[in-house]
Amino acid sequence: MTTWLAKHKKSELQALAKHVDIKNTDGLLKDDLVNAIDEHLRANSSKYSGDKLLAEFYERGGSPAKKSRASASVDAPEPEKAEKKRRKTIVKDAASPDASSSALIPRTPASLQRLASRVRLPNSPALSRAVSNQSTWVSNQYKSLVKQSGIKNKLPTVRQELSTIKVVHLLILIFEAVGLGQAKYPFGKRNLKDLSFGPIVFPTYDYYVPNIWNFRQSETWSASFLWLLTSLIVPGAVSYLINLTYANPRPKTRRTQPARQFDPLVFSIVKGLLAWVIFPLGATFTFGGLFSPATVTNVNAAIYGGYHTMLIGSGIGIITALYDGLSFKS
């Protein structure tokens, strides 16, 4: 382009656009910027014709497209010449063997470039295959590891062993014992260097261990024995003597529940009754003076949740025992 606007650089055109109050020109290409300034100056010729900075624009007549239309009405030979020259250029480009390399590459408008940048293109086939192969390899390795470990074959046996009433009662007793143990054998800070003797010297290192020396205190023994008596010994003895699951020999044609050494339903009922009678009334009921009221109070405070936890555990035991009996009969 040989017009006055086309001779300017893009930075100069942007400054000129700012001068004539054209906004939002940062994303425009040079050709779009030239057209925008040209149209604006022509539409506002009465305002900017007297501007010395734009005097040459109005003297030249603006862009080549506008100039060609203006010159067509004044001088006929010039359009013919321009048209002839344009036809010659087209024939030359079409006949040239390397027209594809010498022709100007059309530039994509800025609006289309921004739109293309927001469109998410799909992953390449090579990347998809690599991800798929990696996922397959990880899955095969996991299956091979599970098969070699034998977990799949051992899991049903483990589930069968854990799905019993004994395990339920054992978990309840462990929960109560942990609370009592932390209260009677609290963890204390020790230093590894204190264990040094003779030529053997250990480095300075702090660690935490339960204070096992508390077992020498009579209060610790009393609290432990009271909990064992209430949660295990007395309920176990009563459930052994009063065993509702005990069955006398019957005809083989009649289905009967197998006998257990200890009745879990009776065990849970007796344990709940003892917890309800002893700990809320600890100041008066002490097994005939065998335990002091302070011992009963300490055990109740040591167990997580106090005697309420023991009552909840008894309720869970009763529900599991009933469910087990109903499942067997059905």
Automatic annotation (TrEMBL):
Question: Which spans does this entry mark as compositional bias, Low complexity?
Answer: 93-103
| Keywords, in A-Z order | Membrane, Transmembrane, Transmembrane helix
- InterPro entries per the UniProt record, alphabetical: Put_GTT3
Where is the segment annotated Disordered? 63-104
GO cellular component terms given for this protein = membrane
Signal sequence span is none
Q: Which residue ranges run through the membrane?
A: 225-244, 265-291, 303-323
Say yes or no: keyword Electron transport present. no
Q: What is this protein called?
A: Uncharacterized protein
Which source organism? Microthyrium microscopicum
